[in-house]
Structure formats: structure tokens, C-alpha cells
Design a protein that fits this description.
Number of strands: 21
Strand order of the largest sheet: 2-1-6-5-7-8-9-10-11
Oligomer: single chain
Number of helices: 15
Strand content: 25-35%
Structural class: alpha/beta
Largest sheet: 9 strands, mixed
Length: 425
């Protein structure tokens, strides 16, 4: 961006590009002041990004979220970022001066694009350090609010802050699926609420789904200028020349609805092949969500009999198992969707952007169940990702965790003791 043409409004005050980057490319006074005060602060992080954005370079460095592996860096063209920002603001019919809440980390594309929308379209940026409930700090509604589903659920659960979200003019939710419970709570929103579909490579969203009101959508609608189709594997193909130079072939399995919208099924990477039947992890998780209040994930382990077996991974102490209604969960699932094994972990592995770390969760399942009694006997359980063996021993529930069969929970049968399982294996 040319420094003589750009600027930004932050919390109602106008700043020029030279406040963030000097002619020699070094940080300008705004950024320098933030860095001197606290180089690790969110304000300093914002200053560093604006310095990079207003510098003469044609691109900025962005990182993928790490949902399917280690985060990767690539160069995002500033001209395409500006095009993405214009498309979103035009779709939402926002004008210069509208307030724009920044409550997402700037490490990833979602947070960066919140800032670019303010720069490109003259929105008043309201920065709030990313947290579960940003409206505890900014206690009023805004014109544009981009949040994760977790943030939205937290805001709505607090009577002191819920109205600020519900009174906001436009809300965009991204970074994870929006479940039925959250969608129901959003029906009282006065403004438009959207779920978004996109990725780092598309520089934020390329499709939106209206969640509330009489014009609510069955699925996602592509933004103007974006064409979406299905590949031979029923994964989405995206043609968005304004934001991506080439057609993007994703790993996101989807189906088209009669009204022309599309619905996500799950990632191609998240298919479990058990007994020659393919199970989509996200669909199983959606069916289990009404029965499990805490964090959980569905994963798999290798099986000589079935190829793979479904595993339910729960976050929390083993005592939580007694509070779950396994019989009702069994009824909600198809025959091959029912987990073969259930484990507990003190902390579910997550990526830096807060999504389930699928490879780490799979590794935990494989490590825990490959040789359950051997791991216990060798004292190796503490090496399992996200679990603490001593907490299991203290709770007296270790035998309910190592090698716990789903059928034992759902039918109420007592579990075989470890020595009996070893003899039977």
C-alpha cells in the first residue's frame, strides 16, 4: 500500500500510514510506542501488522491455522486482501465510519482481514485483546463483529454482555462449526448473523450462511464473483479470481442443496474406514454434541479386524463417564458410527486457532489403545498426549479408561479387569 494514500481509524481516531511505517521502512511512531510499552501486547501485535501492511511490499506473510498439520506460511498479496475486504463490506452494506470489532488473534488470516476491512473501507477499528468474551471490555454493540462460535456462545451465556452481540448490526462467525444450540440462541439477534466458509488460501471467507431471520439459509452461499463446484470426490472446488490466482481444490466434502446453497459434510482427511464402511468424523460429533457438554472429539485407532475402530475422546476426569447417557448416544448413532473405545484426557489437544488437533488426538488414541495393559504395566501412560495417569489412579478409575469398550458403557455391563483383557487379547 502506498503510504500517502492509506490510513486507519482506531477507536475513533484517525491515523495515517506514516504513523505505522516510516519512509525508510522502519516502524512509525504508533508502532514504536506500542513496542516500547510492551512488545508482547496485542497493541504491539496490531502495530507490527499495520507496519507490514502499509509498507511498500506487495504481500504480507500469513500462516494457515494448522487444522490438519503444522501451520504453513505463505505470502498473501495485499491487492487480493483488499479485494476480499471490499467484497465483504459491499455484501454487508456497511459504510465508512461503521464500527468494526477486532477480537481475533492477528496470527491468522481472520484477524488480519478484520484490520484490512477497516483500512480499505474506512471502518472504525475497535481493538480488544482476544479473549472468550470481548464484550466485557467493549460494552456496546458494533456494526461489524467477527467472532468464533466459542466466543459467541460465551458472550450470549453472560446476561451482562449478550445484548451487545444481539444488538450488533452484522455478526460473522468463523473458525469452527455453529451448532444447533448456538443457532437457536442467535434467532433473537436484531442484525444479520452469518456463519462463514473460507480458509487462509482464500483470504478469509468466500461464502456466508445467514443463520437468523426470515431469510436464513439452508447452507452457504458463495459471495459475488466466487464460483463453487464439487470435484469427483465430492470436495469443494473454489474459483475466486479476485482473491486466489488459481482454482482451489479443497479437502472439504460437501453437498449442494435444492436452493443452490451448499452444506459441509466434513473433511476428506476425517473419514474413518471401519469394516469397509466410511464414517465422517464431523457427522458423528454432531450427533453426540447434544449429549456431551464438555470438549470431545471422535478419532480412530488401527484394528486388525475392522481396519480402523471409532474412538470417543473426552476432555475431563474419568468421573464424567458416569454422568453420560451412553444408551441414548447409542440410539443417536448408526451401527458403524458407534465408538469401540472411550478414553478421557485432562486436556483435548487443540491447534493454535482453537480447533481440534486431529493428528495429535489420533496419536493419543493409537498410543493409549495399542497395548493398553502393557502401557499400564510399564508406567508409560503418562506419555499419552493430554492425559495424566496419576489423576486416573487417584480417581480409582484407571480400569475404566484403558481399553474401555463403548458397549460396556451403553449396556451397563461391568468392565473386564486388565488381567482378564490381557488374557483375552
Amino acid at each position: 500500500m502506498k503510504t500517502d494514500e492509506a490510513g486507519i481509524v482506531i477507536s475513533g481516531r484517525s491515523w495515517s500510514a506514516s504513523d505505522f511505517v516510516r519512509a525508510d521502512g522502519t516502524p512509525g511512531p504508533w508502532t514504536s510506542k506500542a513496542l516500547e510499552a510492551d512488545p508482547l501486547s496485542f497493541e504491539a501485535e496490531l502495530g507490527r501488522f499495520l507496519t507490514e501492511l502499509f509498507s511498500p511490499g506487495a504481500a504480507v506473510t500469513v500462516h494457515t491455522s494448522g487444522s490438519t498439520g503444522a501451520p504453513k506460511a505463505f505470502a498473501a498479496e495485499k491487492s487480493r486482501m483488499r479485494a476480499s475486504a471490499r467484497a465483504t463490506i459491499a455484501f454487508l452494506r456497511l459504510k465508512p465510519g461503521c464500527t468494526n470489532l477486532l477480537a481475533m488473534p492477528l496470527r491468522f488470516i481472520a484477524g488480519k482481514m478484520v484490520v484490512v476491512r477497516s483500512v480499505e473501507c474506512g471502518l472504525n477499528l475497535i481493538p480488544v485483546e482476544p479473549c472468550a468474551n470481548p464484550f466485557l471490555e467493549h460494552r456496546e454493540a458494533v456494526d461489524l463483529c467477527a467472532l468464533t462460535p466459542m466466543q459467541a456462545a460465551t458472550v450470549l451465556a453472560n446476561p451482562a454482555t449478550s445484548r451487545f452481540l444481539l444488538e450488533s448490526r452484522a455478526v460473522i462467525l468463523g473458525g469452527g462449526p455453529v451448532d444447533e444450540e448456538l443457532t437457536a440462541k442467535l434467532q433473537s439477534a436484531q442484525g444479520a448473523v452469518y456463519a462463514s466458509y473460507g480458509m487462509t488460501e482464500t483470504l478469509s471467507h468466500v461464502a456466508l450462511r445467514r443463520l437468523n431471520g426470515p431469510t436464513a439459509d439452508a447452507g452457504f452461499r458463495a459471495l459475488p464473483g466466487v464460483t463453487i463446484s464439487l470435484s469427483a470426490l465430492n470436495t469443494l472446488q473454489i474459483e475466486a479470481p479476485a482473491v486466489a490466482a488459481q482454482t482451489l481444490i479443497t479437502h472439504d466434502r460437501a453437498r449442494f442443496n435444492p436452493d443452490g446453497t451448499f452444506s459441509l459434510i466434513g473433511r476428506l482427511d476425517n473419514v474413518i474406514n471401519t469394516g469397509a464402511v466410511k464414517i465422517q468424523i464431523e457427522e458423528v460429533e454432531a450427533k453426540l454434541k447434544p449429549f456431551i457438554s464438555g470438549r470431545f472429539a471422535v478419532s480412530a485407532r488401527k484394528s486388525r479386524l475392522f481396519g480402523e475402530e471409532v474412538v470417543l475422546v473426552l476432555e475431563g476426569a474419568p468421573a464424567l463417564l458416569s454422568a453420560l447417557d451412553f444408551s441414548r448416544m447409542r440410539q443417536a448413532l448408526g451401527r458403524f458410527e458407534r465408538p469401540h473405545w472411550v478414553i478421557c484426557t485432562s486436556e483435548l489437544p487443540l491447534t493454535g486457532s482453537g480447533k481440534p488437533d486431529r493428528p495429535a488426538i489420533r496419536k493419543a488414541a493409537e498410543t493409549l489403545f495399542a497395548e493398553p495393559w502393557t502401557a499400564l504395566e510399564a508406567g508409560a501412560a503418562s506419555n499419552i498426549i493430554g492425559s495424566r495417569w496419576d489423576s486416573f489412579l487417584e480417581a480409582g478409575a484407571a480400569s475404566n479408561i484403558i481399553g474401555s469398550r463403548w458397549d460396556s458403557f451403553s449396556t451397563g455391563q461391568s468392565l473386564a479387569k486388565p488381567a482378564e483383557r490381557q488374557a483375552a487379547s
